Amino acid sequence: xxxxxxxxxxxxxxxxxxxxxxxxxxxxxxxxxxxxxxxxxxxxxxxxxxxxxxxxxxxxxxxxxxxxxxxxxxxxxxxxxxxxxxxxxxxxxxxxxxxxxxxxxxxxxxxxxxxxxxxxxxxxxxxxxxxxxxxxxxxxxxxxxxxxxxxxxxxxxxxxxxxxxxxxxxxxxxxxxxxxxxxxxxxxxxxxxxxxxxxxxxxxxxxxxxxxxxxxxxxxxxxxxxxxxxxxxxxxxxxxxxxxxxxxxxxxxxxxxxxxxxxxxxxxxxxxxxxxxxxxxxxxxxxxxxxxxxxxxxxxxxxxxxxxxxxxxxxxxxxxxxxxxxxxxxxxxxxxxxxxxxxxxxxxxxxxxxxxxxxxxxxxxxxxxxxxxxxxxxxxxxxxxxxxxxxxxxxxxxxxxxxxxxxxxxxxxxxxxxxxxxxxxxxxxxxxxxxxxxxxxxxxxxxxxxxxxxxxxxxxxxxxxxxxxxxxxxxxxxxxxxxxxxxxxxxxxxxxxxxxxxxxxxxxxxxxxxxxxxxxxxxxxxxxxxxxxxxxxxxxxxxxxxxxxxxxxxxxxxxxxxxxxxxxxxxxxxxxxxxxxxxxxxxxxxxxxxxxxxxxxxxxxxxxxxxxxxxxxxxxxxxxxxxxxxxxxxxxxxxxxxxxxxxxxxxxxxxxxxxxxxxxxxxxxxxxxxxxxxxxxxxxxxxxxxxxxxxxxxxxxxxxxxxxxxxxxxxxxxxxxxxxxxxxxxxxxxxxxxxxxxxxxxxxxxxxxxxxxxxxxxxxxxxxxxxxxxxxxxxxxxxxxxxxxxxxxxxxxxxxxxxxxxxxxxxxxxxxxxxxxxxxxxxxxxxxxx
Length: 834
Fold this sequence. Notes:
Blueprint: H1 3-27, H2 31-51, H3 59-66, H4 72-89, H5 93-98, H6 100-126, H7 130-140, H8 145-153, H9 159-189, H10 196-227, H11 232-254, H12 258-276, H13 279-306, H14 308-311, H15 317-347, H16 356-364, H17 370-381, H18 387-419, H19 426-454, H20 458-481, H21 487-511, H22 520-550, H23 554-566, H24 570-605, H25 607-634, H26 636-664, H27 670-688, H28 695-705, H29 714-723, E1 725-729, E2 734-736, E3 744-750, E4 753-757, E5 760-764, E6 769-770, H30 772-777, E7 784-787, E8 791-797, H31 798-807, H32 809-821, H33 829-832
Antiparallel strand pairs: 1-8, 2-7, 3-6, 3-8, 4-5, 4-7
């Protein structure tokens, strides 16, 4: 085909893509449905003009459109990796990791279940070989993620639910395409009834092989990109090459799933690149991929839809009946997943509860599109597949796709409206009226001040003020006559707004390079968790999420275990430094939120709600301060260095702001401004590396601060610090119970614990010890000890504690005082130390 013709067609396609988006919004149709409609009209119109005798003038253009050099390999090797890679880059991995069980179960189980249901139903009705029918099932199991995502973004769905469905949609495509490749092999070899056990045993190998290739190539790509730190365009180019190399290497070299390789590469890049690249580079990369994916998604829909008239060319009534079987069985299979498996996961608390209305919207919103057509096209192009099988698969997959686009796609908004998902809840409706009234009052004050400053005509100002006053009066009356909002709901709404404001402040801090780029994802994930918890459980959920954000997670505990048992300090030092930085930032942000409550929330929800939010914020600030104090006590020198680094970064951030302001005011030129920013970037790079944390040295410093160890010389202190084992506990965690071992004594480095025995309780704080009485008296433990704040403990085994007891009169005094408080008489402690 002539290059000029191809170029003209491509330019025309981009023009149609640009026009389709505003047209879809005007007609209130999903964008993918509009694109598919454009493709079908182009394909049908080209076929019509070639066959009609009305005119021959358009025949060259019609032939060029129908013979456009597009094959299934272009869809699978060019467009599909682009779409999948971009989705993975935009995921919040830390929040996705919280829900990996329901995402994987829904994706993998849904694909296998749908493939089996459609395959066996079609085989039973049509009499066609089971292998071919299962292949149809795998093809039609690929949902269109963009359609599902657009549904949830247009509704006020819980974020966790939207995240699970988005993740399931992405993984669904990956699993379905991997299963398609497996079943395609059976069809090409002419196996009528495949051994499903053998097939599904190969399925994990396809997934694991592809995942390994993607992770390896992504790690190499990040290493290469860090070498090109000062060359943004070079880094972008490496990122563009990654998904295609991953797909080709997995498919052609290893024989694994290329789609899984692209998913793994994107997730690995998402996890590692933010901490290795400059924040501006990572932002640019995301923007480049958003644009590439937009074009790829639009082109794949239009070009695939061009093939629909050709694939349905010789359709008959029997084929229409089989399409009906595929439609019914596919919807039934997805309904089984949504209305049986999803509630079961909710019962075992692996998935959030999903209202039946939302499940119905997901069921009807499971549109199929370009991926389904591309897989069907791959079958029709294979000469190793029997002609009748090629024809059947092409017609059934295309007919089913057409049904979802034309019937489900065009009626989707009607179904959503019928389900009542497009309406505000009574609380939100009442709140919206109050928000409007408060906002208009603020606007009236600002307008009055502005008009006074500009010295506008008095008559015009008075006329407009009267008109605005009428609108304000109406808004106030509507707010007063609206349904009353309970204080509990007001508090929940205030907490959601508070958590949202916290997220906005954090984003602004990241843009200003106030914290390390590698912590961005973690801190924003904690902020998102606050929003979701407040929305779902109000005050209780907000408190729980706040405690979790400053608590000790599993990775930190693993790092502690590695250090205590194997003396590997790097993971613990790195995570401790992260914890320092996060707590420091959180403490500063909480102070900004106090002002937000007084300036915004109080005016909407009233004084009582504002006071409650202040109390919740004060408790959070106290927890953060307590955790920070504990870290400062443990690592005094390091805390000072980290705070100095934070001040330096803040100064650089403010310096950048001043240069930007001078440039906007025209006081400095663009050349000088660029030179100043380059100088600041170099200084920011210098401050990106945090001071080194020596865990062993710091533990010796902590031991030296204990009054109990004041009588020990330096050599004894060094030996003691090597013997002490660090243990971190969260608030509420049980440290010792009545059936626990009696061979360990704990010293409290920071935090506080509560001891309960015989109906009494004692609270112990920094510098005190517990566990020694059961060890010394060899009696059954009658007390249990639980942390009442995030605490750091230093544990000492029995032999070393007895040795310490012999040497330290201060420890002997502390042991006696502890025993006296509990009414226990101890014999000679010098003898007990032996």
